[in-house]
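Q: How would the structure tokens look for this protein?
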Amino acid sequence: MHRKKDGTIFPVEITANHTTLEGQQVNISSIRDITEREKAEQELLESEKKYRELFNNINSGVAVYEAYRNGKDFIFKEFNLAASRIEDVKREDLIGKRVTEIFPGVKKFGIFKVFQRVWRTGEAEFQPVKLYKDERIKGWRESYIYKLPSGEIVAVYDEVSDRVIAQQKIKESEELFRSTFEQAAVGIAHLSPSGNFLRINQKLCDILKYSHDELLSLTFKDITHPSDIEDNLIASDNLLSGELSSYKTEKRYICGDGTCVWADLTVSVKRDKRGNPEYFISVIKDISKRKKAKQKLKESENKFRTIAEQASIGIAIFQKGNIKYFNQAYADIYEYDIDEINTWKINEMLRNIYIEDLPKIEGIIKQRKFDKVKTITYTTRINTKNGKIKWVEVFSREIIYQNEKAILVTTIDITDKKEIEKRLKELDKIKSEFISRTSHELKTPLVSIKGYVNLFLEMHSKDLNSQSISILKEINHGCDRLESLIKDLLETSRLETKGLELKKERENLGFLIKYSINDLLGLINQRKHNVAMELHENMNTMFEKERIYQVITNLLSNAINYTPPNGTLEIKSEIKDNHYVISIKDSGIGLTEDEKKKIFKKFGKIERYGQGFDVISEGTGLGLYISKKVIELHGGKIWVKSEGRNKGSTFSFSLPIVKN
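A: Here is the predicted structure in token form.
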């Protein structure tokens, strides 16, 4: 520092050089006033300080890059605090490093090419919002890149993820609104306070049968049924005045094709920030089908009441334990006055059940609740008001009555039917006893006749001519047939006796079938039939061997006898639904539909004699009836299939497979 003559101090720059002048070593010094230079340097320092403060405190990220290898990459020269925050990286970790090294996704992001263009052309570029992501960070960026006179490039950018997400949510909200508006299952409309349509969805057009443009050209009064306009106008005025926030009503609309449609209408008002009404929001649901259904239900209820009042069966409806409806026939069955039944609860109905039957009925009702069964049927006795005991059949099921669950009970007086059944059982018992006694009485003289005929033939056949012998043999054959009939009658009587117990043992059904076939080989050979078998080797189950043998031989005999000579028989077994199923198929004369209905009934024999069939038509008409009874006693089923006359028949029966 030097002092001037006037005493002011100013900065100087002194330069000294040691040299030789005129043979002598001398020092030459020069002094230069550097006041202006220092002033300029000070201003520069202050400017750089301001720049640094601006650089580090600006909200936008700022990065300065230097080209590397002729623009093939760029090296970080500067990186402000905002950029460090945005990129979640420290300044010292990237200064001097290449861009592609720190941000591997920069080339996919697209900004790397912008860097190269700006560095090459010197023209600044703006890059719109784009998504940057790599393994470390992810975010939306908006950037501005320019080139400094020094050749460095500068990127000024902002992290705009919040803005983008907000815009996306707004867009999604708008799309959701439009999708909801357009794809709603109900009609939606925005109407001006004066009643003009502003916006409508397609569903409303479908409901009202107008095109979009047609409906927009109308007012709500144009399409409202005249009888409903006044009520709608009053409700709309109340909405506009603020007296109502919304209203809901059912109204009629006049459609584009002139028809009328019932709709459920809900209306509210959209107001601006000052509370002034902007437009009505109307939601219209087509309820024409519901209205028609309601009308049909009303008509149905009227029909039900008309039919119920004229019905001979008792009808009652119970709801929440109380009787809601009953007809005159119901009161007549119980012999109570209508006024008395009007106050009944379901428990009072149960109190009229005969005391011995009550536990059974209560058990049925409890079981229905437990199994959630909607329908039950039972037969019981009841006590009437006048002390009579009646038999009734009750049908009870859950229904919907007046939009709530209820129980419909129908009651039929079957007292006369029960008396008839009782008398029929007594007659059936007398009949069975008569058949049994008569059969036994016939059996004794029949044995004597047959025995004496055989003895006479044995002792005197040589003294008789051929005609006499033929007559005696015919008597003998008639005795055999009568003996078979008596045997079947006795068997039928035993099978119809209640409480009959089978003597079941574990047996092989397959062996029994083969044994039965072997017993009938003589008849099979006589008729020249071909027999094929496909049987399981072991079909062990529980059955009474003698009775099942009777069934098998009966079915086999029928197949042999009712198939003309040189026919075929097929005996097969299969396992189905835990049952052995045995089928015997023949190529015989077959059965018609009427014959199939008759054949398993008592004395259901189909007469074949004299009809031109080469078959053996003998039997009592009880064989298949007995077979059916035997199989059913074993828990199985028996049935027949035939496509008609001369198309053969297949008789099948099933027996349950009992392992233990």
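The mean pLDDT is 84.

The chain is about 45% helix and 30% strand.

Upvote if useful.
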